[in-house]
Amino acid sequence: MPSTRFPIRSLVALSIMSALAGCASEPTFGERLVAEGQSRAEMGAQAVQAEKDIERGRRLIEEGRSQERDARAKLDEGQRLVDRGNDRLNEIRNAVSQRR
What we know:
This protein is mainly alpha-helical. It has helices at 5-23, 29-99.
């Protein structure tokens, strides 16, 4: 008499695999499109934010450079005033000391 053990085991294995496959069904075409669309929308939002960050960063850099130029000009002008003031004070001290 032929053994029925192997076909029964195969049948049980196939039944279990079919049941599991039924539970984890593959997304439909529409579901995949929605998921892809959501993913792309999220990436798009991130890209837009990145572009805004880049633009803001460039503006801040330019603003900083402008402020740096202004600050250097003020420092140069301040140093000229200090030098001129010191020169004038030295002239006055020399004039006062010569009168004694």
